[in-house]
Amino acid sequence: MTDLSAFPITQRWPAQHPDLLQLYSLNTPNGVKVSIMLEELGLPYEAHLVDIGKDESHTPEFKSLNPNGKIPAIIDPDGPDGKPLALFESGAILFYLAEKTGRLIPADAAGRYETLQWVMFQMGGLGPMFGQLGFFNKFAGKAWEDKRPLQRYVAESARLLKVLDARLEGRDWIMGDQYTIADISMLGWIRNLVTFYEARDLVEFDSLKNVPAWLDRGLARPAVQRGLEIPKRG
To answer: Where in the numbering of this chain does the GST C-terminal domain appear (predicted)?
Structure first.
């Protein structure tokens, strides 16, 4: 049996099955990237709920795994050379799992890098902009009298959606016929934007030609449906 006792995070979230990949997460748009990926791959794993509402991601135990204090993070007991690997940042985890299994990423080098650039598009663009829009449209920022920040993030979010819409022209998935980590990286964020953040009308989502149908295709996948609920909130 694998010994994960060297990882302080296991003191707060004990591994019941230390031979399995350990996921520390919450079903936020970033968190579900990894749970969807694991469900799509069919890899056995053990999920641990990290309640960010209770600031658990900023505890010493969690920050021993991710010093940035953000979910998700993983420990793979069967990492490179058969040694345990701890990893944070959802995009890095997606790429690692794709490379580890040889799945959900093109086999050729050019295709892999093209896929990775769209994951980076999500990480550097969609996620941050949608998150700020959500803050100013639904959460504390909603009360601000100055509406220029909201207008700024609405405009940028709408622009990014148009970039994605153009990419999807004539394609079922971001990389064409192949469903990849690029799609997985964005599904939770776009779903969140038009539902939880209540911004569907603000960004004129239904005027887009391709993104709504792509989102429906993605959300219809059984692994996506399962992954969106893992780990369930307490």
So the answer is: 108-234
Quick count: other Cβ atoms within 10 Å of Cβ 111?
A: 15
Do 91 and 132 sit in the same domain of this protein?
Answer: no
Residue 230: inside a domain: no
Are the beta carbons of 25 and 48 closer than 8 angstroms? yes
| Residue 78 lies inside a defined structural domain of this protein | yes
**β-pair type (21-25, 45-49):** parallel
Structural domain total, the chain: 2
**Looking at 51, 81, 103, which one is the last position of a domain?**
103
The pLDDT tens digits of the residues spanning 177-227 come to 999 999 999 999 999 999 999 999 999 999 999 999 999 999 999 999 999
Considering the entire predicted model, what is its pTM?
A: 0.97
In a domain, 38, yes or no: yes
Of the chain, the percentage scoring pLDDT greater than 90 comes to: 97
117 and 221 share a domain? yes
The per-residue pLDDT for 234 is 66
Give strand pairing partners of 85: 76
